[in-house]
Amino acid sequence: MIKVYAMNVSGIDSYDVNLRKRLSPKRLEKVNSCRVEKNRKQSIGAELLLNYAIRNEIKAECPVIWDTDENGKLFIPNCDFNVNLSHSGDYAVCAVSDKAVGVDIQIIGKANMLLAKRFFTIDECEYINSSKNANEAFFDIWVKKESFIKAVGKGLAIPLSSFSVLGNTVSFNGVEYIFRKYSVKDLAYKLCACVSV
Length: 197
Hints:
The chain is of the alpha+beta class. The protein has helices spanning 17-20, 25-33, 37-58, 113-119, 122-130, 134-152; strands at residues 2-8, 67-68, 74-75, 82-88, 91-97, 101-107, 169-172, 175-182, 189-196. The model has no long low-confidence stretch (mean pLDDT 92).
């Protein structure tokens, strides 16, 4: 089971006192450390989605108390559900699953082939170069790689160039992970979740 929640955060007022009361102390600290308004909106939106998703799944009290492990992976103590957050541009997303899960959203920009050569496999670079739309191909690969890394929860201890995401699945340490692509109303985004089978 996997559910992905998305929210356009452009209308959030990051200084709204009532909205801030709905955030956990850790999120408030994170929001207050953001210097850019867009980043504050994304951070608030991510936690609002997390609260909504958890309340929807297990009827938990909000704001949700969360923590991160030694690799920075988000988890909710005493909860059987796995969660993951991402944000980009005007959107925040939250994935919830009973399995290991990762999610990534990216606004589509210009394909950065220097970055691709450094972090993608040779086959992935060839796929981008032969694609009719290199920008979309680049960000298709990017969100799949990010969602996989986040699902595994080892951070960048797994080199991004050490695995290919051209297929619908990828294996790591004997565990198979499957990718699920989602669409966003605004077509300028790529969104993918990765969950263990």
